[in-house]
Specification:
The protein has 544 residues and is an all-alpha fold. It has 30 helices and 3 strands. This is SOCS box domain-containing protein.
């Protein structure tokens, strides 16, 4: 049953009168018709809850004057009428309920008390009313949140001030180890942060939560530059790392907070950023974009450039480069879980350049193309020639990147790499490697390269064909040869080393039918075909 949504047919006539604030009707129903004042709807609400919610003071007084009215009656979610009044800022109703004996500290089923709700919503008068009637300012809910946590995270300065004035604990930590100052750091309210710092011991500013997070990390994540600056001025350390290796600068990148990132880069130790980018090639491989897990990676795997690409923060890539981070920050291990990655490993490649990484793992779009151009202009790309174990960018685009049906952006990137970028001009040997890659992993790229006017010689094409996975050889040959023919290339080059299309087709059909015969009985074929072909289809061995 849904305890939040009211089903109209479940409400009694008395409850409807209390909801409408119609005192005369309410009196007539109860006094003359004998209707019950304790009937409940599908949420467990009684008429007293309706009157409290809508702040109908006179109706509430009438209901409370009956001896069988329970002022502390619970709904199915454990809410009293006073709890509901506090949650909706029904001041008059709250006063009446308190005078009638409403318990100010009774929580709901999740241990959330009336003061939690008033503080969370910024109801200053309600907060003061509850406190003056004995509300415990340090009550904790199911997550060990206090009313001060609630007010701080919402940035309710006057409520925070009222709670602190009445003895709220500034040092209490919730179930995750976060103090009210942590919550204030996320609130975008410098006033709240300043007030909490003024009332708290200095050690709280760099206190760590259970996951190692600090106040300046949370402020950076929320993107409030003023809060980050205030915390830094008062001693917050931007160089601290959380348990997963994340620093404040990483969270600014993830949140796409440009101003915060620039400020943090000006006060953060670059050595620590660069150390977090270092990766041991012998025991670590890159976690793909869809599987990047901060909680389980080792401390050296949090690469700030990887984060920028992973989250598509193209506008921040230029900032990271301009700030002068060492080139070591922009080198990444290959994801060997991809087909292209496995192939690169066999060739001795271990690293991706920034440009290769963008081309291989980022979702393509106008901004990513601009990032490609930026990386080339800044000299952070590797030339296509094999060197130092780095995958050439053109290779990464062809062998790792996903080319979907709508491949306009991938084609633009390919055009740019081949035609416009001087540092990526291909030599005949390198063109052979490119054609080999394209034929093996990316037939769409193979066709487009031909359309750009690059036509390899016979030996390159034959070598590429011989390397194709035999499980895919028919489709590869058919597609590639048609593309070569369209490009004006002579396809009359088959030798005993390369199967003809006819042979390939027969071999494929033969294998498929032979497998089917093992699993299912197939009747004798009566087809208008040459005897030799019928014999072939009936699984007679055929020697190539």
């Amino acid at each position: 049953m849904n305890f939040e949504e009211n089903y109209p047919d479940s409400s009694s006539s008395v409850a409807l009168a209390a909801r409408a604030g119609n005192l005369e009707t309410l009196k007539w129903l109860v006094s003359h018709q004998g209707k019950s004042i304790e009937s409940q709807d599908n949420r467990g609400w009684r008429p007293i809850h309706e009157a409290a919610y809508w702040d109908h003071a006179e109706c509430l007084k009438f209901l409370l004057c009956h001896s069988n009215t329970n002022v502390n009656a619970y709904t199915f979610e454990g809410q009293t009428a006073l709890w509901i009044a506090a949650d909706n800022n029904s001041l008059e109703a709250a006063k009446i309920l308190l005078e009638a004996g409403g318990h100010v500290n009774l929580p709901n089923n999740e241990d959330v008390a009336p003061l939690h709700r008033a503080a969370s919503k910024g109801f200053k008068e309600m907060t003061n009313l509850l406190i003056s009637n004995g509300a415990n300012v340090n009550l904790t809910d199911y997550g060990d949140y206090t009313p001060l946590h609630e007010a701080a995270i919402q940035g309710h300065f006057t409520v925070v001030e009222a709670l602190l004035s009445n003895g709220a604990d500034k040092t209490v930590q919730d179930s995750h180890g976060r103090t009210p100052l942590f919550c204030g750091a996320q609130s975008h309210s410098c006033q709240v942060v300043q007030l909490l710092l003024d009332k708290s011991p200095p050690s709280l500013i760099n206190l760590r939560a259970h996951d190692g997070a600090t106040t300046i990390m949370l402020a950076s994540q929320s993107g409030c530059l003023q809060c980050v600056q205030l915390l830094a001025d008062l001693g917050a350390n931007p160089n601290l790392k959380a348990n997963d290796g994340v620093m404040a600068v990483h969270l600014a990148v993830i949140g796409n907070h440009t101003a915060v990132l620039k400020f943090l880069l000006s006060i953060t130790d670059y050595t620590l950023i660069e150390q977090s980018c270092a990766v041991n090639l012998h025991n670590h491989t890159y976690h793909s974009v869809s599987g990047f897990n901060f909680g389980s990676t080792d401390l050296e795997s949090i690469n700030i450039f990887v984060l920028a690409v992973t989250y598509g923060r193209w506008n921040l890539i230029g900032i990271l480069i301009e700030e002068g981070l060492k080139p070591d920050c922009f080198a990444f291990p290959i994801n060997f879980s991809t087909a292209g990655g496995k192939w690169f490993r066999t060739l001795g490649y271990k690293w991706l350049t920034p440009l290769s990484f963008v081309l291989a793992y980022s979702p393509f779009g106008d901004e990513s193309i601009e990032a490609v151009k930026l990386l080339i202009r800044k000299g952070l790309s590797s030339v296509i020639a094999i060197q130092n174990g780095f995958v050439p960018p053109l290779f990464a685009l062809i062998a790792i990147a996903t080319w979907d049906e709508d491949r306009e952006q991938q084609v633009l990137a390919l055009d740019f790499l081949i035609q416009e970028c001087n540092v990526l001009r291909v030599t005949p040997k390198e063109l052979g490697e490119v054609m080999h890659l394209a034929l093996r992993f990316n037939l769409k790229a193979f066709q487009h390269i031909l359309h750009l006017g690059y036509v390899p010689d016979d030996s390159i094409v034959m070598g590429a064909f011989r390397a194709v996975d035999t499980n895919q050889i028919t489709a590869a040959h058919t597609f590639a040869l048609s593309a070569l023919t369209a490009a004006g290339f002579s396809t009359d080059f088959q030798t005993k080393e390369v199967y003809t299309l006819k042979q390939l087709s027969r071999r494929t059909i033969h294998s498929a039918l032979k497998f089917r015969k093992k699993c299912f009985p197939i009747p004798e074929l009566n087809l208008p075909l040459p005897t030799s072909l019928v014999s072939y289809l009936c699984f007679s061995d055929v020697m190539f």
